[in-house]
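A quick aside before the break. I want you to see a complete sequence-to-structure record at least once, exactly as it would be stored in a machine-readable document. Don't worry about memorizing anything.
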Amino acid sequence: MAREDRAMRRGACAAMALAVALASTTPAHAAGPPGRPVVIHDAGGTRPLAPLAAESGLAPWTEEEGAASSAEPASPPSAALFPVRSRTLTPGREPTRPLERAVPPVCLVGDDLRSLSWLRRNRERLIRLGASCLAVSVESETGWRRIREAAAGLPVAPAPGDAVAEALGIRHYPVLIGPEEIGP
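That is the input. The structure line, written in tokens, reads:
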């Protein structure tokens, strides 16, 4: 039972971390009014975020707003965030496989040559899909700039991808998660 509880917490943490990371990189004016959140993975045991946000001193929100209130757009990450490393993910080719249910498209990338080339090749498709990107391996601000240039037009957030990788059984990046499959 303890193993199931840990797995549920990891899955919930992965979904929350991904949602927070991606939401924090999109300027408030870029997408218009916020919509309802979309759950991409829920292993059960989900609890409301509002009490935790209040304890943490995060901006309050109402059901009508759907998100934390802020007049300022998100600022770019500072040098203190780097390096970003994911212990369980490595550059490589992730096998294509179906997802159990459709999810909003998210890609995992790094600042390595394979990821940057993949981003450039797939950027238009990712934009058409409305994908967001999680930079799971970034050594420095220079690497971050390279990712942002290759992903021009896509929201990108730097954050370790271990929880997402574990929840979905992913071992390699670059990879596209969704809308209906995991694969390159």
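Two observations worth writing down. Strands lie at 90-91, 97-98, 106-110, 132-137, 156-158, 172-173, 175-177, 181-183. Residues 5-13, 23-33, 63-73 have pLDDT under 50 and may be disordered. We'll return to this after the break.
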